[in-house]
Write a structure and sequence with these properties.
The protein has about 130 residues and is an alpha+beta fold. The protein has one domain (about 5-130): RutC-like (60s Ribosomal Protein L30, Chain: A), CATH 3.30.1330. About 30% of the residues lie in helices and about 30% in strands. The protein is built from four helices and six strands; from the N terminus they run βαββαβαββα. It has helices at about 15, 45-60, 80-90, 125-130, and strands at about 5, 20-25, 25-35, 70-75, 100-105, 115-120. A six-stranded mixed sheet has the order 1-2-3-6-4-5, covered by helices on one side. β2 (about 20-25) and β3 form a beta hairpin.
Length: about 130
């Protein structure tokens, strides 16, 4: 199987040595995505920014939110769960991936209140057409 690294615009990628997403066959793994560009925003806006960033890289990988099978949400404040959950639900209400919320002490950028990882699996019909890109 071919591995495709999909870079993003995070200033941390070259320092840490990671890709925004990696596609292997019909699987796409989106790295923990913080709200780059919305650092000072409220947690709902930060979550929407994360979804914008993730949506863009999923598209470049030949996928969409419809293909997401798992999300992992990392919150720095347990009280943010409803706001983050509402925004997550706006996108995933009918898709219903397996999802986890975890409260952590702090994220890489202390202003971030949320970070999300996404795993997607493409159906076979998308796999062959996207691999030819």
């Amino acid at each position: 199987m071919t591995r495709q690294n999909l870079p993003g615009s995070s200033p941390y990628e070259p320092i840490i040595g990671f890709s925004r997403a990696v596609r292997v066959g019909n699987q796409i793994f989106v790295a923990g995505t913080g709200p780059v560009g919305a650092d000072d925003a409220d947690v709902a806006t930060q979550t929407r920014q994360i979804l914008t960033i993730a949506g863009e890289v999923l598209t470049r990988a030949g996928a969409s939110f419809q293909d997401v099978v798992r999300t992992r949400m990392f919150l720095t404040h347990a009280s943010d769960w409803e706001a983050v959950g509402q925004v997550h639900g706006d996108v995933f209400r009918d898709i219903r991936p397996a999802a986890t919320m975890v409260v952590v002490a702090q994220l890489l950028n202390p202003q971030w209140r949320v970070e999300i990882e996404f795993d997607a699996v493409l159906p076979n019909s998308k796999t062959s057409s996207a691999e030819g890109q």
